[in-house]
Amino acid sequence: MRQPVTTIVVCDTCRYSVEEKTAPCGMTGGEILAAEVERLAAGREGIEVRRTSCLMGCERHCNTAVMADGKITYVLGKFAPDAEAAGAVVDYAGLHRDSATGQVPFKQWPQGVKGHFIARLPVLAAAPTPPRLDD
């Protein structure tokens, strides 16, 4: 059975640094990280990237989430807005995609994500199907 697509959500409003909202180029840290994640994930089968405005982890910028239908979701943060951090997130998303549950053994984690986990969210149970009105 084919695994569901893993989506990397990147907060595009995260600050560039503690001191600065934007980089000298005028982009937020989140915009820079999102662009790098998009670039590095391009062509990776089963991985999609989506931007959102605010994951509400402002004290731990730059923030991402890794999620897929029927799997555990992970929120990660405290990333530098650069290619190295983006690469670690994309590599972790690939491991998440390949896992039946979304859990990845610690020994397999890319070094760049260690120490960056903020939250683990359980799988959302499917809502019960409402009864049909003609029953």
Quick structural summary:
With 135 residues, the protein is an alpha+beta fold.
What does this molecule look like?
The protein is of the alpha+beta class and 135 residues long. It has one domain: Glutaredoxin. Helices cover 21% and strands 19% of the residues. It is built from two helices and five strands. A five-stranded mixed sheet has the order 2-1-3-4-5, with helices on one face. Strand 1, helix 1 and strand 2 (47-52) form a beta-alpha-beta unit. Helix 1 (29-41) crosses helix 2 (83-98). The longest helix is centred in the C-terminal third of the chain and has 16 residues, at 83-98. This is DUF1636 domain-containing protein. It comes from Thermohalobaculum xanthum. InterPro entries: DUF1636 (IPR012863). It holds the Pfam family DUF1636.
Walk me through the topology.
Elements: E1 6-11, H1 29-41, E2 47-52, E3 64-67, E4 73-76, H2 83-98, E5 117-121
Parallel strand pairs: 1-2
Antiparallel strand pairs: 1-3, 3-4, 4-5
Helix pairs in contact: 1-2
- CATH overall fold name: Glutaredoxin
Mean pLDDT: 94
Q: Numbering strands along the chain, what is their spatial order in the largest sheet? A: 2-1-3-4-5
Question: What's the count of strands?
Answer: 5
- What count of structural domains? 1
Our Rg estimate from Cα atoms comes to: 16 Å
Counting DSSP H or I runs of 4 or more residues, the number of helices is 2
Helix content: 10-25%
